[in-house]
Amino acid sequence: MNSFIIDINADVGEGIGNEASLMPLISSCNIACGGHAGDDHTMETVIGLAKSHGVKIGAHPSFPDKINFGRSIMDMSDVALYETLEEQVCRLIHHLDNANVSLHHVKPHGALYNLAAKDKNIAMVIVELLKRFAFPVYLYVPFKSVIADMAVKHHIPITYEAFADRNYNDDLSLVSRNEPNALIEDPDVMYDHLLRMIKEKKVRTVSGKVVSIEAHTFCVHGDNPKALRLLEGLRDRLMEKKVQIL
Asked: Is 171 helix (H, G, I), strand (E, B) or coil?
């Protein structure tokens, strides 16, 4: 039987306060850095928790919109968007430097993530941000997305990401959070969903269609009300199928 090594990531520092419980269960995290959530105190706290558990740390920048939690598209110029994203990521890097920890990756949040998957201008702003760093920083991107293609073209290292706790449409977009079936909240359902993506590189969409997908890192949203329940025991269940979380 083939063995597999994957990464499990979670969005953290968003005001939920469950990071101490999440960290032993994940292998990388995406820390909110002031755009949709987070402040200096939360960044410092979550960095300390991640460091103590050996969890890789990423920046989770967003449209600067705490009112809508970064889940609404903002009408901004490319320059203004670049400036706010740079400020957010550099703010996190400042705290990482103080903790003697390196930035591993960047993962855009919410509406920015979804828009960059299909909009060349938005994708290019994020790619230009990554080009700013002299050290290699991975960009977490969805499979078959505009931002993935542009990052590769500009020699930005990427990691394909898929969502363990979200349902997909046939075009590999995520089911809108306005729909009742957007989130996966049953551990057994998520396990089957995740295992299919890992071992078969397929995802069953909400229409019942089976579509090809590729990913190495899989997200469980830290603000999912069932996040801990979804993650508890997942490592052991995956190990039985020769899947390691590293």
From this structure: coil
Nearest to 10 by CA among 156, 244, 217, 239: 217
Kindly state the tokens that stand for 84: 């706010």
Could you give the 3-state DSSP secondary structure of residue 4? strand
At 180-238, the pLDDT tens digits run 999 999 999 999 999 999 999 999 999 999 999 999 999 999 989 899 999 999 999 99
Helix, strand, coil tally for the chain in percent (to 5): 40, 20, 40
Report how far residue 177's alpha carbon sits from residue 111's, in angstroms, rounded to the nearest whole number: 11
Would you state the torsion angle of the CA atoms of residues 170, 174, 179, 185, taken in this order, to the nearest 10 degrees? 110
Q: For residues 125 and 75, what is the distance between their CA atoms, to the nearest angstrom?
A: 14
Angle of CA points 11, 131, 15, to nearest 5°: 20
CA–CA gap between residue 208 and residue 203 (Å, rounded): 9
Taking the CA atoms of residue 126, residue 132, residue 135 and residue 139 in that order, the dihedral angle to the nearest 10 degrees is 0
CB contact set of 161 (below 8 Å; sequence gap of 6+): 9, 107, 140, 141, 142, 215, 216, 217, 218, 219
